[in-house]
TrEMBL record, chains A, B:
Coiled coil: none annotated. It comes from Candidatus Thiodictyon syntrophicum. Keywords: Isoprene biosynthesis, Magnesium, Metal-binding, Plasmid, Transferase. This is Geranylgeranyl pyrophosphate synthase. GO terms for molecular function: metal ion binding; prenyltransferase activity. Belongs to the FPP/GGPP synthase family. Its cofactor is Mg(2+). One of its GO terms (biological process) is terpenoid biosynthetic process.
Amino acid sequence: MEPTQRIEQALEAAIVSAQGPGCPPGFAQALRYSVFPGGARIRPRLCLAVAWACGNSDPETTDAAAAAIELLHCASLVHDDLPCFDDSTLRRGRPSVHCAYGERLAVLAGDALIVLAFEIVARRIIAAPANVSRVMATIARCTGAPVGICAGQAWECESEVVLEDYHRAKTGSLFVAATVAGAESVGAPTESWRLVGERLGEAYQVADDLGDAMASSREMGKPLGRDSSLGRPNAVQELGIEGAVRRLKDLVASATDAVPACPGAPALQALIAAESRRILPEELARLAA
Amino acid sequence: MEPTQRIEQALEAAIVSAQGPGCPPGFAQALRYSVFPGGARIRPRLCLAVAWACGNSDPETTDAAAAAIELLHCASLVHDDLPCFDDSTLRRGRPSVHCAYGERLAVLAGDALIVLAFEIVARRIIAAPANVSRVMATIARCTGAPVGICAGQAWECESEVVLEDYHRAKTGSLFVAATVAGAESVGAPTESWRLVGERLGEAYQVADDLGDAMASSREMGKPLGRDSSLGRPNAVQELGIEGAVRRLKDLVASATDAVPACPGAPALQALIAAESRRILPEELARLAA
């Protein structure tokens, strides 16, 4: 089965189980709306690609880990969009969950997706206790406190921000979860995969900063890279547009280099290359060609 | 070690691990504030008492299950108090988490406590995979969708409420989690313990309804039991004060009767009796004496 199909199937099975008998109808809809249709599903695709590179010996545990990471990513988007955070009315081109279903169901959908993520991984405990134990520790660490995405988001509430901790926790941690849990789900060593995840996480952060700068340039007629809308230093502010594009390319190259020699390495490197084209708008890619 | 001490120690260790290096300082404080000082800790006490009645053969797994259930209870209180739900400014006699630390940290603290709950149970996978697998499935089912506390809260967003599903999910489910996971943590059968949890959950729901009726009587000078502030039918509305008190006593008696014959039964029955005195104000207990 194709990776994309495996991921959608695992997510579909998870959501169907969450919508089971007894579920309040509006809540059941909000849960599905939070997960489908998806974005690029890059984190679960990475997770599957790493497990494949490591021998793909337990696809069911890998699928559970990949789907769990995507559910946690979806939960973080639903909560990040809430009025008290980004107050985003749109997500992936349609109303955000709280705009479509109200703030209460958005809070609850995020909560239930977190629970669901751990629930689907826990279903693999009997089949593969040692690997699942490591996968769960990794996913929890990359999601909660002190250094997961919740902690990353919480840095936005501090008056003094440790910028490296902020970025690593907010954007990097789920990429690390994807690569490391991919390896752990098949019992493989994780050291080099952690590096791949860290580099890719940083690359996405730079791509985000570039996207923000482009958007504010288009929307507000401001010159590119002069400021950041949240007043926090970012890669564009620090390096300028061209410098940030170069930095992004360096990070992608470094992630690619970090992939250890193995039968699945070419496929994984192709995935990284395709992703780097997707996240870097062509108009920018030319700048630092 | 005394049960109360075991519970506080397990919760303390969990919060300390969540506050580890790299945690944003305000977030670290909000996490601790969400859990300490606690309320009656009735759910983890029940969990320990059931495991004790079943032989107490794996106290570390039982402690993890008990602490996880309390963390999930705390998370639900933090989110329930949010402006979009109950908009409560007070909890246990001091400012609620969002009043003390802001709405964003309250949302994030709830999220991170959910993650932490599963994380601490997952640490016992290697030691006791079969029991932990069952404990995790139980805790997830009683917390998320379709029938856990998230689903219970979500019924409040529906125009037509299935009242039994609402109460069972919102109040009952964590009591069932406490008794069932207590038995599962030591590999014991769960059937009769589920009944104990269900009956106690219903008793707490009736006690809540009585408490609301008493409070609105005191605060607003309204006669007892004439209405419910949320406009939903409840035990007091249905049965009147005396009837509700009688119902509560019947439920407690039925929970006590459901405790299977075992060496720990008297201690567990004493705990239930003490709790029923705690949740039923003396002024009411006399009414249906």
